[in-house]
Amino acid sequence: MSASELWRSKTMKHCNLIMKRDASAPILQGLMHLNTVQFIDMNENVPAFSRTFSKDIAKIYDVEQKLNFMRTAIEHSTVRIPDQLKNIETNSIVSLEQELDKVIGEYKSLAADYISNRQRNDEIYEQLLVYKNLSKVDIKDQAERDNEEVKLQAQITGALVSDENADDSLNSVVFTIQRKLTYMVIKTLYRVTYGNIYYETFQFEERLGNDDESGDKDLVSLFVPGQESLARCQKVLNSFGAHMYEVPDNVETAKKNAVEALDAFNMTLLLSKQRQDNILAQTAKYIDFWTEMVHEQRQITHTMNMFNTHEDMVSCRCWIPEDNMERVRAEIEAIDFREHVTAKTMLVEEEVPKGVSPPTHFPTNKYTAVFQAIVSSYGTPTYKEINPAYFYLYQFPFTYSMMFGDMCHGFINAFVAFLLIFNEKKLEKIHNDMFELIFFGRYIIFIMSCYSMITGLIYNDFYALGFNVFGTTYKWALDSSGTKFVADNTKVYPFGIDATWHWADNSMIFLNSYKMKLSVVIGIMQMLFGLIVKLINLINQKKTAQIICVWIPEFGFMFAFFGYMVFCIIYKWLVHWPEDSNPPALINMLIQIFLSPGTIDPTNQLFNSNKVQSGVQTAVFLFAVIFALWLMLAEPIHEVIHMKKHPNPETDRALSDIIVQQVIHTIEYVLGCISHTASYLRLWALSLAHSQLAEVFFDQLLGISIKMTGVAGGALSLLITYGAFFGATIGVLCMMEALSAYLHCLRLAWIEFNSKFFTAEGYTFEPLNGECGYGLAITSDMVRSE
């Protein structure tokens, strides 16, 4: 599989499949494994519940739901996942449903018993803890003394005793309550008894139950005078979900009985858990086989619902890639022979219906898949439209490298990506959403990082430092203003930027100007190339009118003005400007083309001849205006003429709508050319940000240690600052900056480049396939690792 297969989508054949109804299931099963036939719904106007096999599909969904129940139970259990086997006895949906009903019924019964016994076990365990800690909340003597003092004081003061307090004997209540509710319960009890209670609390160290929120509990001993107050307290405790206990006469005997009951329940729970695990282990052997069988049956039945039925024959139209036609025919013939089909299955090629577009299909491999995924995230290419992913193979890493051009940072990311590629057989078994995303993009990370290393050599950036690899072409000179670098005109720096520019005082001015102009040149070249791709698409689609009315003015406008801009940038680079000269500002010169056509300000003179420059810029202005008017008027005129020659009330539009739409399109295109060109300045801006960040990290971290005097202090400082420098380099520059550059690449690819030719009005080729997701062993690991 080569990258050329990304150029245009595969040629699709429109076919009609006619076969015996009895043979449809085995034929569809065979075609499913080929993964190369997309069926067309012949009953799209028929409601789903009215189709032939709607009841069968409902049955399959029920079985699938039951199967998912058992699968989920196995995934959340601790049973070992055995090797998957095929169960020959349950080879149909009916037999599988019977088997699942039996297994689920037994499992649910055991699970219900287990939950009931577990609750009872927790209750006994809590009761045992209460008995063990009764002595820590025993305040009966103190409560009785306090109660006698209260009664004596009441007699002295002559306080009246209400009927409800006539029985003033103390009543004891021992209960447990969730720790977070203890304060609220005591406060409520205090209010309902008018403060006439005595209590003591104790916090259990042990956690009770399986619920994280209700596991922490307190033991409370409460003494209340009077039966009426006791009744109120009991109602309050019940409303808060407290567990009340009676204090036994013989606490030791009660503890012994609780321990014996607890041992019995623990044994029961152990046996119940073992029986549940045995059921899950037996079922786990066949889960993948059953899942695949149910998925295939669901796919086959759903596809058969798309067929037209004629007595004992069925037919359906489908899309098949031209390259796979012979494979499909051979598979059908083999199935007919194996199943002893009386009427031969026919696969008839047909003409593509008018107005119908075939699906879009691009075969990909592990390298090209990520580039195609970037395009698919934006939109599916129209059938036989040139695929942007073909150009992304080189364009995407190239634009990325202009923003992330550093030899060392590129090497770090390339090395990490290389490790992912080298160990991909082992790493592809790791199933984590974040890691899978990075692993899927390992090849694009590697190629982008390699491009960044090359661009870093051109920029002469090594951790934002310039290295004098080939020997500088500048030398020190002395004049009236002091020492400065002077170019040696007898030498030319062989590759990239001379390292002296990194040390010069005007380094920022030069590098910014260079990268900014380079970004504009690259951007305009890419957009012009996108328009050339659009021309190829229009020629392939035989849209001559679109070429004349739309493409020529669009390309002419951009080439006239922005092509002249590129020419001026390159011309200014090539011309030698003496030190005392005043080179023109290109921005002012280009603005003057539209503000003062034909006139050249002396400060904006680029060419030697003012007359030549005036003539060229006048021509640029005229061409830009002519092409803009051409784009605005040609398409409406053509559409009006076409409507008069071929009137169609359903598709014809009003003249005003046509004109307004084309005027809007023209304005959008003209302004879009300017905004898209400005958008490419992000190539310069991010490169500047990256180099400045790297320089700041080096100067403020390693630079401080390098400048320090003293061996001990310098070594200790270097040890500390190097860790900070390493963390900043990896975390900020190699990760955050790399992600930022990648996102900006997406913007340039999707908007600035794709908008020039990519219509993205297709739909993806979705063949009948038998893929049903990860196996039980993988999904169990994923669930249990959470």
From TrEMBL:
The chain crosses the membrane at residues 398-422, 434-459, 518-536, 548-574, 616-634, 711-733. InterPro entries: V-ATPase_116kDa_su, V-type_ATPase_116kDa_su_euka. Signal peptide: none annotated. It is found in: Membrane. GO terms for cellular component: vacuolar proton-transporting V-type ATPase, V0 domain. The keyword Ion transport applies. It comes from Hexamita inflata. It is a multi-pass membrane protein. One of its GO terms (biological process) is vacuolar acidification. Pfam families: V_ATPase_I. Essential component of the vacuolar proton pump (V-ATPase), a multimeric enzyme that catalyzes the translocation of protons across the membranes. Required for assembly and activity of the V-ATPase. GO terms for molecular function: ATPase binding; proton-transporting ATPase activity, rotational mechanism. Belongs to the V-ATPase 116 kDa subunit family. This is V-type proton ATPase subunit a. Its main location: membrane. Keywords: Hydrogen ion transport, Ion transport, Membrane, Transmembrane, Transmembrane helix, Transport.
